[in-house]
Amino acid sequence: MIYKYTQNIDSETPIMCINTHIGDETREDGSVDEGVSGSQFQEELLSLCQMGKKKVDVWINSGGGSIVEGYTIFSTILNAPIEVNTYCMGLCASIAGVIFQAGKNRIMSDYGILMMHNPWGGENDKALEAMKKSLVVMLSAKSKLSTSKMDSIMNEETWYDASQTLKAGLCDSILNTSEEPLEKSLASYSIAKNYFNNAISKPIIDKSMNFKSICNRLAIAEVDSEMALLDSIEEIVNKAKRSKAEAEDELDKAKAEFKKKKDEMDALEDKCKNLEEEMNGYKAKAEEEAKNAITVKAKAMVESHAKRGAIQNSSIDKWVNKAVIDFDGTEELLNEIAPSKQAPSKIEEPKNHVQLDGVAVVSSKMAELRNKFNI
């Protein structure tokens, strides 16, 4: 079969890589962006099991993707007949973070990031809720966290760094970047030391030792003497120590730069908060001044109509309130109200020769308007 995700197949401990999104994704133009296939991953891992491999390491650096494809990968890792360990090699987000939990041993890089959130997509809310409950069961069982705690973690879209992941029980150990080269070199040194300790009792060391085999094991250039081999091993150890020191320096610089950027960001956030509060103060003041201005204008207009006798003084406040809400409409209503103290200069006699009392007509009109506008 063709192996798409497996490296070093001939090794006793092959490595499988999940380094893109889970499942295929359809782009806006209709083309398909191929991701990690659950069925292909399953076939490869089961094939490695049948080869008699002792264990398999799964390296993950993915932002997530299809839950259905993720189910297949998670279940295959969890139920494999051999030991399968998972490594967070950068980002394990969404369903990729769930897959990370399936490993027998869950190893987190010290720079790794883990993210958990609720499933989303589509319009079937019942299906999403069912998947949510299923994922909560899977994650709580592996992390030893309660289902309610895991439900809360997913609801809040929680992001963890390595130390937080370990504290939450979502990984078993942390792989320290700066220490790894030295550990490997010391392991190589231990192999050579044990070899020499076993061989030292032999009468002729230079004839009985297989330098080629040792050099191949240590991945160094072939030598023909014990001293040359020891020099090579010492060089490996010194190089590893230098690498560790350089890595620690880089880490310290990165931490210092991170702190500097964080301080700058905190300062900007404080500044933004102060500006927002200041802006809100200006806005409230402007609104208050605008309200006062329209109130003054409304009162002046209403009082002018009271002076001409269109309304009573006792109703001024009520008309001012109406004018504040709708100045033009209120002014138009007041303009339609004739003064109650001023009778028409001339009463036209109707054609049917019925004589009407001018004062009675005005009073009747005023009563009608008061009833209409509740004044």
Order of helices and strands: EEEEHEHEHEEHHEHEHHHHHHH
Terminal-residue CA separation: 93 Å
Shape: elongated
The assigned structural class equals alpha/beta
Largest sheet: 8 strands, mixed
Q: pLDDT below 50 for ≥5 consecutive residues: which ranges?
A: 180-193, 195-208, 342-359
Number of strands: 10
Query: What is the gyration radius calculated from CA atoms?
Result: 42 Å
Tally the helices: what do you get?
A: 13
- Output mean pLDDT: 80
Assembly form of the protein: single chain
Fraction of residues in helices?
A: 55-70%
Bin the strand percentage: 5-15%
Polypeptide structure, described:
The protein is an alpha/beta fold and 375 residues long. 58% of the residues lie in helices and 11% in strands. The protein is built from 13 helices and 10 strands. It has helices at residues 38-50, 67-79, 95-100, 125-143, 147-155, 162-167, 180-199, 205-208, 211-218, 226-307, 316-325, 327-336, 358-373; strands spanning 6-7, 15-18, 25-26, 32-33, 55-62, 83-93, 106-109, 113-116, 158-160, 173-175. Strands 1, 2, 5, 6, 7, 8, 9 and 10 form an 8-stranded mixed β-sheet that branches. Strands 3-4 form a two-stranded antiparallel ribbon. It is elongated. The model is unreliable at 180-193, 195-208 and 342-359 (pLDDT under 50).
